[in-house]
Batch of 3 targets.
Target 1
Amino acid sequence: MGWLDRAASDTQVTHRQRLWLYALAALVLAFLVIPTLIVIPMSFSGSQYLEFPPREWSLRWYRNYLGSASWMQATATSFAAATLTTLLATPLGTLAAYGLFVSRLRAARAIHALMLMPIIVPVILVAIGVFYAYVKLKLVNSLAGIVLAHSMLATPLVIMIVTAALKSYDMNQEMVARSLGASRARAFVGITLPQIRFGVISAALLAFLTSFDEVILALFIAGGSNSTLTRNMFNALRDQIDPTIAAISTLMIVVTTLLLLLSQRYGNSRRG
Amino acid sequence: MNIELHAGGLRRDERRERLVLLGLSAPALLLVGVTMIAPVAWLFGLSFLSDTGEWSLEHYRRMIEQPSYGRTFVTTFKVSLLTTAICIGAGYPLAYLLSQLPRRAANLCMIAVLLPFWTSLLVRTYAWLVLLQRRGLINDWGMRLGWWDEPLALVHNLTGTLIGMVHIMLPFLVLPLLNAMRAIDADLLKAAANLGASPARAFRSVFLPLSLPGLAAGTLIVFILCLGFYVTPAVLGGGKVIMVSNHIANDIELFFNWGAASALGAVLLVLTMLLLWCATKLLRFEKLFGGAH
Amino acid sequence: MQRQAVPIAARGLRKHYGAVRALDDVDLDVQAGEFLTLLGPSGSGKTTLLMVLAGFIRPDQGSLRFGSDEVIRLAPHKRDIGMVFQNYALFPHMDVAGNIAYPLRLRGVAGNELTARVDKALQTVQLAGYSARRIDELSGGQRQRVALARAIVFEPRIVLMDEPLSALDKQLRERMQIELRHLHEQLGTTTIYVTHDQREALTMSDRIAVIHGGRIQQLDTPRHLYERPRNRFVAEFIGESSLLVVEVAGERCLCDGQTLRLAQAAATGAAVLMLRPERLQVLAHGAALADGLNHLQARVVDLVYQGDSFLLQAQLANGSTINARGIAGTAALAALPQPGETACLAFGIDDTVLLADAAP
């Protein structure tokens, strides 16, 4: 255990003196990670009460999920809503981020602040406000209504991420492209966009997840035949602890991880 | 011969270009304006209308008179403050360690911090439900190891809610705090050591003050998020932990009381905005002072 | 196939940012095929002027003609200009050929003609065979050449360069200056070059426009700028100079009580005299005063050995300082007066220059 007495920092604190810090940090990290991960093996538990380690391994909850019409319907709705939200929020947000970034008007900063409102205002308020408006407009429990509301939540996030990507991008290249004969639009599409694509893809991913994971708005405006996965899960949680949810949760974790990996692979600029 | 200097034309060109650029953000603005700003503004106005449609403050009066609202506010602040405090206690040491680790080790740990972000809120809340219930993992193992005899009531109460909230809020504190800590010049600590300060003293007098702006930012973010939170208290509180957002939802779902809900919502909105405004003022202030030491 | 070079005529270019006059009603005439440098310190307005020429900054008012076309209201991509930036701004997601082909593609050139013209451009900048290289594999000098090739491959009528060599180290920079000069002679395109380095400007330009405070202080050939600066700013910005206040009377002037002959008669009254250090000859002790030369007696304050040259700092009785430079040969050094002694500085009548404007 010789390393314990070696210096851990520039101020010559040893590892031994820092053991308590390592222990505490390890505990906190375990606290953060374990609950999420432990759902995965527990979802394969055969008994009604999820246990760890599972006494018997079984796929019954997965079969339950895949065989249930209502769960499948909800899953389809969630995927559809998330996909449509991504398709709407990403272009809208990217264009807005670009327009506000290159605009030299003072109004641009005010508009930018306004666009970030959906992130700042507590979702419950937005939810009941949208609910009432949708009741009037007969958009409750409609896919279009869900997509509009989710896009409203996702667009500010897209704007934030794309703006950050633009800030670390060399705008001179667009200027050069324009001097060489490209209109602003052509320069943006051909030169700027390919280089901020990692940001745009991350933003699209976040838009997808925002919609897919969204609970509160769904509770109010996503019901009936257009009920989302999250809404069904939430209601199930309040009534009784259905182990099927463990299976669904695992699948959601897998989907999220897959999307993350995909975005890393296709979003990163090629090397060498 | 007078050469035309195109002043008017150039001015028009400039204005047109600016409008086109702003126009790119018009669709997004329209979306946000129609689906959020309009409804929320309407909600705000609704709180001032009595049930018969006249201007009145009856909803606000009811909030002050009925004790349930007072309880809700107390619960909300209690949960928010406790969550924030626990986050600071658990998050500061973690952030400190991460800031001191070499990059590769730190990045590895960062995955652990960011993992909750990428996992659905519902999944995380559900995980805690499973872990904390009477026949859940923690009680199961606790009793097996002989730590306690009766299953502890860890969920459907304040305890469960707090555990769930801390789990969700911790990354929100750690990230800005870590950023601020990484920005602290390592040379300053070396200089302090050089001048004779013990590591503990150097930490207290140099590192801690410089990390305060980041801590303040993280704390405010966490607190503001806690105020408006819904899902975790609803699921892990078992109906016994009623925060402002739960109360609003109940008013609508159970009582169809739009007036009451909108008044409560208006208070939440104003409170959130006020805190944010304080945050922007305070943080700029802090940056000035934090750097001066 | 060489395109016909075009002249540039700018009138009344004005750009105010609140109280700041970035461009103060600037007029500029550039001859067809000329290499003109905009020279000035940072904040002088030279980059603003270049950007107005390119179309990226819209002036408050003014007229701009490329040849016979009024372009002041044209968008940048319609002005048919080639631009080279200080940081090259090459497109990292394309290889060398892709970068150079970009403007050609925009103009509808494709296939064999495209490849041929890209290769020709690469040859012109001496990077033949580099087509398939990636941008991050290139050195600074190579990147600059690719940027150049990209700017000229479509034969623009005007080329603009914004301090393209400042990011290069000294040796490479000097080599590139000469190469750019040769390139210009080869292509014959009207070229506007921006720099803050006066040496660079003197080396490369047909004419130089010295810019300060949003105004062109002097537009002249390098030699005239150096030998006949119009005002204090130009005199001090280009080369070293000693500026002395003198009293003029016809063909003579009085400096510190000593009489000097002028090349031409000038207006009577106070004026500023400019002397270039290398044009001053330090006479040895007791050497005869040559005919046809002006002389000034001054007290030596400091003598600095600088390897290949020496710097002699002298002071007149009225307190003004004069600097003289000379080659540090052994004999010359031995004959120099020492600090505290009196030095006699001789210079030609033609080198006795009065500034046209006393104030910059």
Target 2
Amino acid sequence: MRSLDQTIDEVLNLAAVHFKVARVELRPGDDFFKKLGIDSLQALELLTRLEQHFRVELPDYEVQGVSDFKTLAERIQARL
Amino acid sequence: MQAEAFLVSFPIYIAEEKAGQRGMLELKEYESLGAALREAVERWAGEVCLIEDDRGREKLRLTYKEFGETGRRLARGLEDSGFAAGDRAAIIMTNQSKWLISAYAIFYAGGVVVPLDYKLTPGEQLALLAHSKARVLVVEWHLWRAMTQAENLSGLDVNTVLVTDAPANADLYGARRWVEFAAAAKGEPEFRARRRADAACIIYSSGTGGRPKGCVMTHENYLEQCVALTSLYPFWPGVRYLSILPTNHAIDFMVGFIGPFTCGAAVVHLRTLRPEFVREAFPKYKITYMTLVPLVLKNLQKGLQERFDELPAGKRMAFHALRALNKLLTRRRPNVALSRRLLPQVHAAFGGELRALFVGGAFTEPATLQFFYDLGIPVANAYGLTEAGTAVSLNDFKPFRPDTVGRPLPGMEVRIVKPGPDGIGEVAVRSKTVMSHYLDDPELTAETIVDGWLMTGDLGRMDRSGHLQLFGRKKNMIVTEEGKNIYPEDIETVFEGLPVKEFCVFAANYLWPKRTMTGEQLVIVLHTEAGQAVREPLRAELAERNRRLLNYKRIHGYVVWEEDFPRTASLKIKRAVLAEQIGRRLGREAVVAL
């Protein structure tokens, strides 16, 4: 079982790889729309990528209104 | 102007089928949506009306008969619980079958539907519920759960809360399960007739943080809209409409519910709107039509363009040649059958039966529309706003004019008020589809509907061929590419208590008029205390408060203003006066990005 810190770390790693940004620039509290410069559709792409990685299904309503990596990781963690 | 604006793109490569030949209801003969839907349920009893899919797994398929039976049981339950003709019932749900079944039941029982946006915060939903005075709330369990945690829950005053999608053994927080409520109802409900002038829906076009704008739409408004749209763009049994825009929005309510249902067509709902599942739905369900927002259309364009660019050189050349040929052969009017033969792979990706796409919610760039048109996927520009009904004007493809939003729809009068030398002025609309009034706000209604004309707040010009072109807004609001309308007043509450003397949020284009409908942004004007500079703690607080807003509602930057805001006797900011002062004395370069 992963710890929340591990989940956060993996979320940041995946986001960095998927959107080709330096991992060191991403912090848990960052707003991923702003930090990654992405729109809502690209955020959905990231979500799919995260679901595949963590082998969980996140209903759309679970992530509605979420815009920072940490909260996203918490929602994933709750379903692991 | 206070109206919520949206732009719609309608495909109408003039359908060769006439509505009457296909058995569409003669809507002029009906007094209400309930009566029309009741007839549809009988006429197309054996046809499929709803399909629900979740991540590629089909979850539900209903015929009109089954839809009608469940709807009537729910109506009976509502009537047994004291719901009377003219009572209001709110729906807060994502797109799914129970949204439409609930609406049918409410109409059947003579009620007024109050569709609320499921993406609003629970506090906002509760505030609008209170304003609407709804007696019944139909809501998805997870949304209801969030509402029960909101501070203003104590103000909730509804008799019945019905929840859908609640897990087994879930705490219902005093609500009843939708399924059990309908199943428990015994006997046939009474069909309660309504007249055309009676309210059918109350649609909130804005006002979540400020003055609620509840557009009271009559049965006549919808029946007339439906006649106008389907005269150009008919549905029929066998058509499959993919519904992904929220049904609470005027566009999907009309094009993803009333339109197809009064023609015996089917609506497909997806429980998740991830792009990959939307893409899969086209071939899986052989989609005929779909409405999307410009952001999604551009995403589709990007995906297609990448695929074209990856083609080996020889195939790419052949593709370009075929596309050019298609463009040439369809320059006068679309011909989807021909385009499917010329560009089979492109059309196969869309399921092979797509006849056109609708784009709704915001302005669509002509280049994007042209991209699809050249591939043989017609997407016509149109323009509308909630207050006016779904669409005001519509491109008729005679020929394709992506630079305009089309000609006025049948029954729609459009005029340009006080045009300048360039012919540009405020667009005003008169039609049977224009809303009755704003709920409980005669003052706002009087400002908005002047001598029978709806003042849209949008700037436009009619060209010689009768096409409407848009050139920005006169009103203080923005529309995002995702089709979200944002009124500055609605987001100011987040900044209340900011340590400055006073502040005000504006659409940048309202301060500095720009003849464009894209790239709109919000700015906050800060009147600081004497000698106060905007330094890091204040900037950080601004940024922190900004983050509390949903991403599409966030402000872009701030402007420092060193004078008192002009105010009315009741101390309300005179926004128009302030905007004029700022626009005159500062330029856009004064905006500091956050």
Target 3
Amino acid sequence: MILNDYLILSTIIFVIGLIGVLRRKNLIMLFFATEIMLNAVNIALAAISKFHGDLTGQMFAFFIIAIAASEVAIGLGLLILWFKRRNSIDLDTLQSMEG
Amino acid sequence: MEGFLYTALFAPLVGALFAAMFGNSPRKIWVGVVNSTLLGLAMVASLILMFHIFGTGTNVHVKMLDWIVIGNVDIPFGFVADQVSVVMMVVVTLVSTMVHIHSIGYMDHDKGFNRFFSYLSAFVFSMMILVMSDNFAGLFIGWEGVGLCSWLLIGFWYHKEDQEKTSDMYNSPFSTLSPHSSISPGYAANEAFIINRVADLGMLVGLFLIFWNIGSLQYDVVFAQVGGLDHGLVVAIAIFLFIGAMGKSAQFPFNQWLANAMEGPTPVSALIHAATMVTAGVYLLVRANEIFTVVPEVGYFIACLGAFVAIFAASQALVATNMKKIIAFSTLSQLGYMFVAAGLGAYWVALFHLATHAFFKSVLFLGAGNVMHAMNDQINIKKMGGLKKYMPHTALIMTIASVALAGIFPLAGFFSKDLILEAAFQSHAYILWFILWVTAGLTAFYSFRLVMYVFHGEENWSHNKEDENYQHPHETYPFVIAAMTPLAILAISAGWFKAEFVEMTTKMLPTLHEAGIHHPSSAVFWTLVAVTTLMAGGGIAYAVLKFNKKGSYHSDKMKETFVYKLLANQYYMPHLIENVINKPYLAMSKFSWKEVDLKVIDTIVDGIAKIVYTTGEESRAMQTGNLSKALKWMTLGVVILLAVAVAAGNLK
Amino acid sequence: MFEVIAFYLFAFLTIAMFSITVFTKNALYALSSLAAGMIFISAFFFLLEADFLGVVQIIVYTGAVMALYAFGMMFFDSINDVTEKISSPKVVFVLTGMIALLVVVMFAAPIIGENAQAFYPVHPEYGNAQDVGLVLFTKYLIPFEVAAVMLLVAMIGGIILAGKKMDISYTEMEEQDIDKEIGKDIK
């Protein structure tokens, strides 16, 4: 297996996540798609780290996991507050900051 | 000595600024007095300078300030009082002082009294800059300044309405028989300014050519080097400078404005259109004589044009009834004389005629002003008559001036005019001599026609207060007559100083001998004098005899002839200019405005504004606040960045 | 050989799971398939000899994060009523297609950096966990501590977001007042 294969795989998963981000109107589904994107990047980092014999990529991946976790926590907290206010988690209701 | 130079130059400016402070106030007589005093000061300074220069033969040259010093352009504000310019200075200040004093009396019922004096003094200041400057750029500043002040003064009564252009010869503003000198003062002022401006373009081209080839505009530098230039180039320079002179001195085809400028107040005509501004063209030729002597063929062309103008104007004065226009045509004719002299190389003769002409023509205008003031601004000479017993002093002065104009010995006109005829004869330009000789006769005739119509003969106005042509003529104020007297005395006596004049000016200007005009033998000389005097005398006698009888002077049949109509309508020149130049130009302007300006330029400018506006409107859709849309825009940005990265990578 | 099969198998599975996450209408299905996808991703990590990372992925991501999402889903009772209508599906697919194309072009090109030097080289003699620990607590200590602070901040944030009626501070009140407060609640 060469590095390119892992990278292409990572790209495909990233693109799938991107489609989800662009397509989903339900806020929770939006978060799921964001998780997918983050994981795709993790794969790429780990692959590069292995094929160059460097640990830097894995460290980066660790920190990404840590940050992703806290981001989920806060995101969900905000989402719950929003739901209590508006009783809907449709993305199109999130439009009060118009220009 | 420099003090006198600066006094002569700046005293009129002080007067102009002083009077300008009271521009909107009602008439204050001490404004006129102060201005006249300041001009009197300038006159005294100029006279002192003239005696100094005559006595010592040196000239006074000052450099006041540096004006333009950029790269190899070095134009200072420099002033010189040398033999030529001091003659002009004396003439200008003398006539202006007398005109100022006369205006105190003439304009005493006018609302714009203070404004008038401000403009008049400003005009004198510009004229002084013109004659005293020591480089062509200063000359041009003065040139434009007198053009501007002339516009201000001709259009002094700018609120007068435009007259209709009828085809009735007795009422149309394009004929010399109507009571209007032009369509309106505003129109006449614009006409004068625009015609002058068009001619100034020629002069500017001449100045540019001089500067481009010689590198400086100082007189001494230019004249020293002009001999070394290519002959065709000097011809071009001479022609362009002459075009500028043509505009100011109203030579054909730029002559239309002079007769129409009579719409302005009479003192303005006396000062500007007799003595000073119109002579600026002659001054330019005299000053630049070293350029013109290199190209005598241009000089010959100038002389021919001058002769043509002389007879062209004199013929139009024969039938005119507008008093000021008669005198204006006579000015135009005498300017033609001066140009003939200058063209043939007799520069000091032209200058001499300029000086004497200034004296008697200005006093003629001032006298006409007196008559108009007395006859309630009536301008048609056929409605006057028999004024001699009511205005004896004015009659005497105007008669003296007319005799001087006709060129009768021993008055001033004889010496200067005869010299010109003699110069023409001795240059073997016999046709020119003949034309000028005939014109002399015509001049004498129409001058005395004017005098006879106005002062003698039957009274064509009524003493009865109820009639519509009631007049109450009275002599003007004594101080006005006192102001006109020195000019009349000079009109008589200026010719007697010919020898001193020649001695002074030929230090700078070429003598007749150097110009190739040899002194005639005694027999020829006396024959010429006799023939000329006969012609002038004959003109006077014919006029006096013809117009002295009561009743109608000419049959009505004469009024129907083609020649009469041609002359009365000024050879249909105004009509020609109106239809060939004015109307197409107006159409072109309208087209440019509507099609080019409104449709093209405005659309482009408005279009740019609209593009900005619509872009903003469309881009507003990006800011809906919808997260989904924002994410889509973000993805688009990522696409663009990636594309750039790939492209940049490939390029490397 | 073994590696190739494993790679393609897990790749296929991962892509399938994530596709379900993205395209299904049922939220529960999406959640479950996401969790499954995470597990399969950890398989990749094991393939790449990043053992520690793989285990961390399972514990943190699949365990903690998915649990969080599951709890969060319990709050929303009307999730099935959200209609998924998109204004222009074409735009979405075009955009993502172009990104995919560009990135694949970038990655399919010959890899630059052939002579990249490893900052923290792998020591295959001790296992991956030891290796990671060594680097993490010596070279990456500061980011580690900062991450810890960030987690603390996230925790506080989460408490505040979820907490209700926190205007009374028990710390600064006397004993009797606290009892009064508690007594109020009991009644």
